[in-house]
Each structure stands twice: as structure tokens, then as C-alpha cells.
Amino acid sequence: MNFFKKVTGLGLAGVLALGLAACGSDNASSNGDSKSDSESVGKSVNYKITGIDPGAGIMQATEEALKEYELDDWELVSGSGAAMTASLKKAYDKEKPIIITGWNPHWMFSKYDLKYLEDPKGVYGGAEEIHSIGRLGLKEDHPEAYKVLQQFKWEDKDMGAIMVEIQDGEKPEVAAQNWIDENAEKVASWTDGVNKVDGDAIKLVYVAWDSTIASTNVMKLVLEDLGYDVTILQVEAGPMWTAVADGSADALLAGWLPVTHQSYAEKFEGKFEDIGISMENVKIGLTVPTYMDIDSIEDLKN
Ligand code: PBE
Fold this sequence. Notes:
- This protein is of the alpha/beta class.
- The protein has helices spanning 2-8, 11-21, 38-44, 57-68, 81-93, 108-111, 138-141, 143-151, 156-167, 172-182, 184-190, 210-225, 237-245, 262-267; strands at residues 48-50, 75-77, 100-104, 114-116, 128-135, 201-206, 229-234, 251-257, 272-289.
């Protein structure tokens, strides 16, 4: 690893100083496998945080974090969820340092050993919730679909199972159907007391975040089973909220609140209905592989 060449370049005194600074961390060590001084964390990743699509709430939160923690030399690089996980894989396979914008539920936490950096200033909020957000009038126009969205509740491990299957190469709709087949009782609780319809059209908007791909595909199949003609439309985060707020889409399933999508919720206040919470205790934050010897966002400071 380049980074350790730099460390060894410090000479014996430098290495000793680092060793001392690292005392308390049991694997910071002599084998050159670990590191501890924070300035070098920045250098080792070129002061870059690997992000996702610019409209994502976690990108706004990260810009805020750079300000709050006075990480003036740092840059948040935007891309996409897929590009970020590709960069993560590349770094991880070589045990290279990388800092990404992570969230739960996500398959990356089951595929790799990762940890969130502590956020003592609370910029990323605490436990978030995923809300189902509907257009005004949805309840009157499509009461049966509305009721399903209201009763739609599941857990990290449910969504995770679908995400892992998709990541392993399965088509989203197949992975979603497999999960539905294995979780008939849970699905039955969402459709409890809901009447069938005859081909009514429903449009769901979503962003290509792995978690949202999973939930949107499941809901599409559940509503179709009730007789709805469901369209799912992939857009960016801003257009997703806009479409529900202006009524051109019926609902979105990825309303992350109170923090992640706070700016969207505020911008469109009064123009949407918060139908219900589908998942509790979700989380966003800066994420690193556990082999990196840093624990807090404060460790990124010079
Ligand atoms: N996420 C996944 C989104 C919400 C769902 C955490 C990447 C975001 O940051 O807006």
C-alpha cells in the first residue's frame, strides 16, 4: 500500500511516534498494516470522499459535514450508487483506504467489513425512518393502494435479502418476487382489508439507490397482484419529490426523514402526504472499511 511506503519514509523516529500515538488501538502496528495519523488519512485518499448522485440527501448532509468539521481541504466527489460501490470493491480488494457515503439497509455491509465514522456533531442525524410519500388526493383517487402504502412495513433484513440477491446478479423483479413468495404473511399484513381493483393505473417514482430499487420492485408486484396497472419510473432525487408534489406521480417509497430528505420535505411542504413509515432505524453516514484505523469524522481533520 502506498500509504505505508510514506509512513516508512518517515524513518524510525516517525514510526515510533506513530506507534505511540496509536497506543490504545491494538492492531496499529509493526507489520505496517495499519496507520494512525490523521493527516495521512486525507493524503491517502487525496482528500476525497466518494459519493453518489448529487441529489441524494446524504450528499447534502456530507457537504454540511465538511463545513461543520472544518474539513476545508476535502472534496465530496459525486457519481452514482453503482460507481461508488465499484470504487469500494476496487479499494477493498487491495485493502486501500477509501471513504464513502454509506447507508443502511445496504448489501455493502454484508459483503464487506465496514464501519460508520462517528459523527459527534450529529450532522447525519440519528436513527432515520423511511416514509412512503403520496401525492395529494391519492387517498380519494386510489384508496386501496393508499391503504397498502399505509400498512407497508418491513425491516432491514427483508430489504437486505432482496438487495443481496440483486447484487449477486438477479433481476430486481425476480428478487422481489422471491422475497414475496417467502414472506407471504408479511405481505398479507400490508394487504389486509384491501379490496382488489380492476386495472387502475398507479405510478411510482424512484431513484436507482439499491435500497429503493428493492422496495419499489416489491411494491410494484404487490399492487399488481391486487389488480393495479403499475408503472415504476426511475428519476433523480429532486425530480422524484417534484413528481409527487406536482401530482405527476402517485407515490415514492424512499422518503428518508427527518434528516436525509429534510430539504425536499421543506421545499414541498403542503404539497404531499406523508402516508406512513415503512422502516425504522435506518442510517446514513460516512463509511470506511474496518481495516482503516480511524473512527470518527474528526479524525479526518488535519
Ligand atoms: N440514500 C438511500 C438516499 C435515500 C435512500 C441514503 C442514498 C439519500 O441519501 O437521499
